[in-house]
Amino acid sequence: MNSLILDKTQDTPGIILDKKSGIFSFEGASIPENVKTFYKPVIEWVEEYTNNPNKETVLNFKMDYFNTSSTKILLDLMIMFKEISKNGKMLIINWYFEEEDEDMLEAGDGFSKMLRFPFNFIKR
After folding, report:
1. What residues contact 100, with CB distance under 8 A and at least 6 apart?
2. Which of 67, 62, 66 is nearest to 119 (CA)?
3. Residue 77 exposed, middle or buried by CB count within 10 Å (0-12, 13-18, 19+)
4. Which DSSP category does 3 fall into?
5. Which segments of the chain have a pLDDT < 70?
6. How far apart are CA 8 and CA 30, in angstroms?
7. Among 13, 24, 45, 85, which is most buried by a count of CB atoms within 10 Å?
8. Beta-ladder partners of 25
9. Residue 111: left if φ>0, alpha if ψ -120 to 50, beta else—which one?
10. pLDDT digit string, tens, across residues 67-77
11. Dihedral in degrees, nearest 10, Cα atoms 44, 14, 90, 85
């Protein structure tokens, strides 16, 4: 399975999805002009990965900001990743936030509650 690496821009997060190295990260801001177009290859990659995931998947979210339409896509991606935990595989979700950024901490807490899945909250 090939890696998917998208460079971070002013409007889009840097995304690394690398099964071989075990790196799964989303970092930066997510305010793309067309959310569905930007995230389409990411969704396709995750769909393929969930068919044959690693024994352990550690997802790292280091988001600075995301708009409402990105929220829905991020939640959908987390739901897809959560499926692997139902099949006896280990899933760990790390949610990084700046100490003074209560909004980002609350966003992560909201995702965790919606997913009914515990996140690790890590100050950066």
Report:
1. none
2. 62
3. buried
4. -
5. none
6. 9
7. 13
8. 16, 60
9. alpha
10. 999 999 999 99
11. -40
Cβ partners under 8 Å of residue 22, min gap 6 = 54, 56, 57, 58
| List of residues 6+ apart from 32 with CB closer than 8 A | 11, 12, 38, 39, 70
Straight-line distance from the first to the last Cα atom of the chain, in angstroms, rounded to the nearest whole number: 31
**pTM tops 0.90:** yes
CA distance 79 to 1: 21
- pLDDT attached to residue 56: 96
Structure tokens at 34: 């067309």
Residues 122, 74: Cα–Cα separation, whole Å: 18
**Angle (nearest 5°) at CA 43 between 46 and 91:** 35
Angle at 82 between CA 3 and CA 42, to 5 degrees: 30
Residue 38 burial (10 A CB sphere; 0-12, 13-18, 19+) = buried
Angstrom CA distances, 14 to 102, 110, 113, stand at 22, 22, 25
